[in-house]
């Protein structure tokens, strides 16, 4: 995989998300406070689960105990799943595999939120907690409604994800919560925006930056000031897309933002 991040004023590439996000440094600062695991909540669309798998894989490689869960819904995992929400079952999986995917099954091929009490009990068993905190119906772009995303109160880092495969495509085909996106564009979008009633506008990189800023970054920073909130432009699977992503983050003045690509081509894609 490829991860692109700003360091010393220039863009660097790594094959590790931990490097791009400086997670060792961030987790070290949290550990000094002695206040539980490091919690990352992922929002938006365009590859949240793939990012979670890679982060879990890298954490496991370092000997961390990784809890993966959701506050909304995610697919039932093929392995590492514990659905009883019992501490002893989760602990046994963590001791054996160093990772667990926990939640309640809903009979529709999905797992859902286990509830606040169980969530906080299970967090105490892990070093790193990865939360899928938003749903996008497998579309690369999303603008949330007022009750979304669902961020746990112990979150340390919020990753706001957008997929670059949305660029150049019709919003009606690639954007979840289209009506919310249209409202954001009407207020904050480019001067020549004309989304129409049916979303027949082609999404530009400028549009993606606008929707990210006003759909996720600004609202979440205001609502969760205790957490860091940064953008992740995913699906940067070519050099050209990586350059486009880094250029967009520069234009947005998002120094902490990262781009990621080729997540489906490496081993962590089969983790769970």
UniProtKB/TrEMBL annotation:
InterPro entries: YqeC. This is Selenium cofactor biosynthesis protein YqeC. It comes from Enterocloster hominis (ex Hitch et al. 2024).
